[in-house]
Amino acid sequence: MSKRPLILVTNDDGINAPGIRSLIQVMNEIGDVVVVAPDSAQSGMGHAITINSTLHLDKISNDSEKQQEYSCTGTPADCVKLAINEILERRPDLCVSGINHGSNSSINVIYSGTMSAAIEAGIEGIPAIGFSLLDYNYNADFEAAKYFAKKITKTVLKNSLPKDVVLNVNIPKLSKKDIKGIKVCRQARANWQEEFDKRKTPQGRDYYWLTGKFVNLDKGQDTDEWALNNGFVSVVPIQFDLTAHHSIQYLNTLNLDD
Amino acid sequence: MSKRPLILVTNDDGINAPGIRSLIQVMNEIGDVVVVAPDSAQSGMGHAITINSTLHLDKISNDSEKQQEYSCTGTPADCVKLAINEILERRPDLCVSGINHGSNSSINVIYSGTMSAAIEAGIEGIPAIGFSLLDYNYNADFEAAKYFAKKITKTVLKNSLPKDVVLNVNIPKLSKKDIKGIKVCRQARANWQEEFDKRKTPQGRDYYWLTGKFVNLDKGQDTDEWALNNGFVSVVPIQFDLTAHHSIQYLNTLNLDD
């Protein structure tokens, strides 16, 4: 690439989260960076978009930094749509989302605002990567994650990605020297066993907090869960064609039309 | 099935929407019905879950009806989690979501609260179907949709569904006699060309409304868009393994680890 690539950076933990600040540092070393990110945390937002409400964008002054930044009242998917349609003067060469504070491996991809931003970019035909670190701590150490984010981003910019595929990258909570490498994986079959914490308001009304225990149902050694549990960075190619193509033939035997 | 099936009904347009009232009528003819649905419209919520806030459930009195009903302050996915973990005394035999006021065909499945409820049930191992009518009108005619919802539900209860597959059913805005039949389809490749409507608040601050134009990029005659445009009900099998398995081999040629 002769000129510097244009890189859109977003996330779901909000524009001030340490994870996105780390990702911006990395991307400034690679290209020209524009940040459009939620003004507050959006975890668990899935692929939500804002239809029944208005959206605000605020340009942030950040004199000491190279990147342009905008804070948005919407969801991660809204940020990508606004960036492409209202802010960027040309199509970005890449969209990166994260670095998320916490895992987006296996079934978590479904609930992930981080990945919804990457998927939204993918739908628009823009190469996209979501990065997540397996550490929920606000003050997590992002050094290893930054190293691998840079490495993977450079490879993707050099080679591009298959059509309609975005990457879900998860980084284990280990120091760089203890990480064994990068593995391309499939999404593990897992789910959450919910345990609702039922409480009473001071007025005596019941309410619930959603909590739960993550259960990996998948013993395969080609999954993201296996890779992460064994000290590897996991890279799962993600698609937004949700068709279960393998089941079409069976469904046609049911004669739904009879 | 010797005893009547237990059917969980939910939606994303809210518990009072005509679409879910139509679906409840149909399901009461087939099984024992428990309704757990959002207390207000949740369109565009994608697969959002409520992590950073509390959830309330209210039992609704509905003396004239057979079903039990609960209204929930959360998202469609929250409703399914609460129903399974806190309300139902046994696992439901089926979860149905809808009937949505408006299409959830092709890429809309990604943004759909209706389908997120069905997918959430699928992750829990419960057969699930989302129904949507291609009519946004609050006072839409649900008669044809009810007919096809009943037909498809009975077939699914009789035959079950492949493991980890849920159905996305869309019904064209036509009278029953003008609908040509039911087609099993794949999800069309489509997207939205956003057109943000930029306005100023009375105080002079910019804000945006998200609007857009749906663009079908897919000329295939095996897609849901083709079926719907040609007078058929579309049935797309949906999976929540988002892995782009076909691209793993290519990604391994990139030597991400070097």
UniProtKB/TrEMBL annotation, chains A, B:
Q: Which family does it belong to?
A: Belongs to the SurE nucleotidase family.
- So which cofactors does this thing need? a divalent metal cation
Taxonomic lineage from the root: Bacteria, Pseudomonadati, Bacteroidota, Flavobacteriia, Flavobacteriales
Q: Is Cytoplasm one of the keywords UniProt gives this record?
A: yes
Its Enzyme Commission number(s) read: 3.1.3.5
Q: What's this chain's function?
A: Nucleotidase that shows phosphatase activity on nucleoside 5'-monophosphates.
Q: What is this protein called?
A: 5'-nucleotidase SurE
Q: Report the cofactor remark.
A: Binds 1 divalent metal cation per subunit.
Which NCBIfam families does this chain map to?
PRK00346.1-4 (NF001490), PRK00346.2-2 (NF001492), surE (TIGR00087)
Identify the residues that the record assigns to the Survival protein SurE-like phosphatase/nucleotidase domain, covering every copy. 7-194
Q: Which Gene3D superfamilies match?
A: Survival protein SurE-like phosphatase/nucleotidase
* Keyword tRNA-binding in annotation: no
Which N-terminal residues, if any, form the signal peptide?
none
Annotated InterPro entries: SurE, SurE-like_Pase/nucleotidase, SurE-like_sf
Q: Which Pfam families match?
A: SurE
Keywords from UniProt, A to Z, are:
Cytoplasm, Hydrolase, Metal-binding, Nucleotide-binding
Q: Where in the cell is it found?
A: Cytoplasm
UniProt GO MF annotations: 3'-nucleotidase activity
